[in-house]
Amino acid sequence: MTGLRFQLLGSFRLWRNGHLVAPEEWFGHKAQQLLKILLTKRGHALLTDQLIEWLWPELTPASARNSLWVAVTRLRRLLEPELAAPAASRFILTYPAAYRFDPAGQCQIDVDDFLGHCRRGQAAALQGDPLTAIVAYSAAEALYQGNYLAEDLYEEWAIPTRERLREAFIEIESALATAYLEQTRYREALVRCHRVLAHDTCRESAWRLAMECYYRAGEQGQALRAFEQCRTALARELGVDPLPETVALHERLLRSEMGRYGDQTSAPPHPLTPSLPLTPSLRLPLVGRDLEWPILHHLLQEAVRGRGRVVLVTGEPGVGKTRMLEELTGLAVARGATVLAGRCSELEQNLAYAPILEALRGTLLPPPPSSSPPCLPGQLAAVAELFPELRRIFPDLPPYQPLPPDEERLRLLVALTEVIRSRAHGGPLVLLLDDMHWADPSTLQLVHYLGRRLDRQPLLLVGAYPSTLIGPQHPLAALRAALTQQGMLTEIALTTLDEADIILLLRALGGEDWGDELARRLHRDTGGNPFFLSEVLRTFVQEGLIVVDAEGRWRTAYDEVTDSYRELLLPPSVRSAVLGRLAHVSPDERAVLELASVIGREAALVLLARLSDQTEAVVARQADRLVAAGFLRPGAADHYEFGHDLMRLAVYDALSEPRRRFLHRQVADVLLALRTPPQFAPRAGEARIGRELAGWVATHYAASDRPWLALEYALAAAEQAARVIAYDEAITWFQQALEIVHAYPAAVPPGFRTRLQLQWRTLWYYRGDLTRTLAADRAALMAARQENDVAGELQALWHLAHDETQVAAGSEASTGPDESARPYLAQEQAVNLARGLGDPAALARSLARLGSDTGFRASPAEREQALGYLDQAVALARQVGDLSLLHHVLTELWGVGRLPHARRALEEALTLVRTLGDRREEVGTLAKLADVLVRQGDFSAAAATAREGLALAGQTDSPTYGAWNRRALGQALVALGQVPEGVEHLKGAARTFEAHAWKAMLVGTLLRLGLALSPPLGEGEGTIQPLDGAWARAAEALERVLALCGETHEPYEAAYALAALGRVRLAQGDTEAGRQALKAAAELAPQIGLPWHHGGTLLQLAGGRLLAGEAETGLAAADEAIHLAEAEDLREVQAWGFWLRGWALLVVGRAGEAQAALAQGLAQATAIGHVRLQHHLQWPVIPDCPTE
To answer: Could you give the CA distance from residue 1034 to residue 1057 in angstroms, rounded to a whole number?
Structure first.
């Protein structure tokens, strides 16, 4: 039964059974318009005459009725393709001379869902349940993607419905703003107010809400400006004055009679101290930006139209970069955009995605039941590792299952991008990131990822940083270069104000009476720096040298004394200005400032109270006085931050070194007691050491008088950063821990050095740096032995064994000359140690490691011993009874075990992993089983297994395991004669492995692609045709294999690729290159113990020797391949061996034996369903080959 889903809000869209109906599927514009009309009037029978008048007024009645009948028939077929007869439609019903759309079938319409959410929100609001109302209204808001059928703006049948829904949207936005205001969530409330005003600029109720929100958020100036904007809009549009209630609210704001902090009736809760005068707002007029502001304005307009961009605002500290972002925020909200804002911090440089999480925090609400999460569940679970609050918002998220590092990093980037985009609910979005010179590396990666995808997105990403702090080696410089090269970056460089700008500014504040000489003095002594200028003016006000009269004008007592204003003594620096103003605050208030400067950019009230050993109420009064004096400003709920980081640094630098270090330790202690990062208030029942908390504690302890207390927390922060693939941040944490270990060796806790080096090793391994990986392996082994940590020693040996095997083929990073005679020394030591411990599980893992490592590198003669190790590992794992361990050991057989045994092992492992319920590991087990089935020659079973794995990979968000399944599927399809489709699967797998930097799998995939592309000689006769340019494309793939093998050190892949490339070069006529490749392959072949690679190498050598005129040598290679295939159950290798044997025998004149060999090959190819080989054996076209 067909299921339909319609989007009518915004652009019209139709989904049938979950798939979007493409434009080319519609039967013309009129059919689509007819459906829109029927949907608009759904539930009502529409007369055919009315429909004709709307759609075909120009046609004769007979032609119009025929056109209507045809359109209805086509619509029914489009909506319900399975219909036996159009009249049986469940959706478009026929009445006498009329039609009706019936939504009672399996049909979902966004308008109905929108109105349902509106009703639920209104009911919740009437019952006094604002949180439920917010959820319902937010769900409705998310569905409103634009005005009803926006592309049919002037169609009269759509206008009444459009206006009704537009008004409903405005009403829920107003209701949502009211609900947010009640919850003291002023930013969200203001966003909704501005959306209402964007639709109706004269709606006074929205202006009053905005005024109240601004005031309660501590922005009285903005509240008063909102009233002026309201008055201007009413006069311009309607020629009337504001209503009495709006004027009354304005008067209350002027008298500061409204409460803040959620108290809607009382005056501000904390009276100001008489000794500390209220400093007038120093949000100076925006001057001197006549060039820069229009550029930013234009880029915002372009983003709203769907052409996004990255903008970086630069300039020296204090030049006004943050102010530009604030002005852009107001403009963006007025244009209907959603604004997300985050700020980077010096103390958060090692916290991955810190400003992104800040920007998102507070914007996520539980989604309505009918909506879907912003990205796949597996992706959202990865984001929840960064943002644990998501698990409360989406309680049904699956458990986090980490992917391979590069895959995990890409998953996070994709997921965060989708989460960010989802915050706009289909509209334009502005993402602001301030102080980007302190951005963590992961944030910079996300900015780059987003930036490359903005050209068709309604998203403007604006960052700011001080140009004086960015050198050529700074990570931000690399980001700028990359985005510039891609044409996605605009940089806006702000300069200091000139004299004319300051003259304009002073006249805006004080009128024409202020002399120009003061502006010149201020310019000379402040350098035109806006922040320094504001601090100097603030100092004048606080000293009583400047006063504000009843009309709001600034006045100085020296106006009549002299025109030079020399009586106004200017402080020599910002630091002096700040410290001079500190003389006017009480000791308790100064202590609060000092604590805030040590905490960092933003501090929670609860943290300041605990540190100062006072109640929150007392600290709140002190902080409010500091806000009034211009030192602090309100941040998020119950938080405070400095007005500018230069001010924080001035206070911080004024602390003595001993006191500063003591305060850092005190902050760390209290953070641990509260168990929450400093920028968040603790939640009831929450007691976790999260990623952010571990980083903050480590940072403060490291800066304290007892830096060794940071060790455990630095390691925890490093581990958690590595977990979300924030490797650069993890390296910084590790380096901090290593430096502390080196500086304070006596304070290092037992076992810490081993754990540190093991984690250090894991980090470098995933970074792909084998030299540093091996160094960390050996350091961990040495530390474990020094600390007598047997478990750590065993783990270090496992890692060392694996890593030395990776470089065993001649790498500079391999073991030293004394150890080269025993390349598996670490594996053997691990086995001996596990035996000594009497731990069968550890011994099983050690034997599996030894068997797998030696099996991949073993010569044919050494392989038996490797298989024996694996057999012992399986037996031990069965004894232990740990299903996960047994699964792990059984899957080690996929690459080195004999095929019948390996197949049984993988089939058993598949049963085990399904019992364990680990779906991601199930994808990997299916991939390994499909790989074994391909090598065995059971292509139909391999294709079915790989398809199952590929489908499951999509459900579990496992692209690399999915690519492994795709590779096996491609191989199987090529063998089954579906060469083009198989080649496409192989190419897709190679692209995935390359994107995720899994080089070992990329090498194997490119080898299989080269083999699939190189036509067996004689292909082209009969039904199977070679692909265009196949030889050249095969050579390219095989050359890449050889180049990559220099990095992966895999001789078995190199030998196979050399032999195949030799045959390809000979077929292309390059005799010399072909012979050289065959010679190199022949030298490597005896060292290859992996049967499939050894057999394939022999086949390619046989084909190449025959092309080179060396028939007897080719015959010997073919016979050797057949013998190997019979022993190892390599059915495909055996069938190809018979084909090559038959060819060689024909060349040397032994026709009878040749026919027998070809018949054996045909029988084997038929048995395994190898369509491609059957074709060659049925069309025995033997190319002309020179004879010896």
So the answer is: 10
Cα 931 from chain centre: 31
How many angstroms separate the CA atoms of 593 and 614, rounded? 14
Using 50, 70 and 90 to split pLDDT, how confident is the model at 348? confident
pLDDT tens, residue by residue, 1073-1114:
899 999 999 998 888 888 888 999 999 999 999 888 899 999
- As a whole number of angstroms, the distance between CA 262 and CA 95 comes to 59
Same domain membership, residue 86 and residue 54: yes
216 found inside a domain: yes
Name the nearest CA neighbour of 34 among 90, 110, 84, 91. 91
Structure-token match 């204090």, residue found = 318
Q: Which of 760, 687, 748 is nearest to 719 (CA)?
A: 760
Range of the domain at 241: 202-262
Mean pLDDT of the chain: 81
Residues 885 and 917 in one domain: no
Single residue among 516, 548, 570 that ends a domain in this structure = 570
CA atoms within 13 A on the CB side of 408: 21
> Residue 334 — very low, low, confident or very high, per pLDDT cuts 50/70/90?
confident
Cβ-proximal residues to 470 (8 Å cutoff; 6+ apart), any chain: 314, 437, 476, 477
- Nearest partner of 52 among 43, 61, 40, 41, judged by Cα: 61
In this prediction, residue 948 has a pLDDT band, given cuts at 50, 70 and 90, of very high
- Residue 206, C-beta contacts closer than 8 angstroms, at least 6 positions apart: 174, 177, 193, 196, 197, 200
Q: What pTM does this model have?
A: 0.55
Q: Per DSSP, what are the bridge partners of residue 871? A: none
Contacts of 564 (CB under 8 A, 6+ apart): 517, 518, 521
pLDDT tens column, 254-274: 765 544 433 333 333 222 222
487-517 b/e (C-beta count within 10 Å ≥ 16 → b) = ebbbebebebbeeebbbebbbebbeeebbee
User: CATH number of the domain that 9 lies in?
Assistant: 1.10.10.10
Rg of the chain on CA atoms, in Å: 37
Of the three residues 946, 971, 987, the one that is the final residue of a domain is 987
* CB 1051, CB 1003: distance < 8 Å: no
865 and 962 belong to one structural domain: no
- Confidence band for 542, pLDDT divided at 50, 70 and 90: low
Q: 885 with 928, same domain?
A: no
What is the spatial distance between Cα 184 and Cα 186, in angstroms, rounded to a whole number? 6
Pairwise CA distance, residues 683 & 674, whole Å: 9
Q: Name the domain count of the chain.
A: 5
H helices of 937-1029, in order, are: 939-956, 959-975, 979-995, 999-1013
SS3 labels along 698-727: HHHHHCCCCHHHHHHHHHHHHHHHHHCCCH
Contact 1105/1113 with Cβ under 8 angstroms?
A: yes
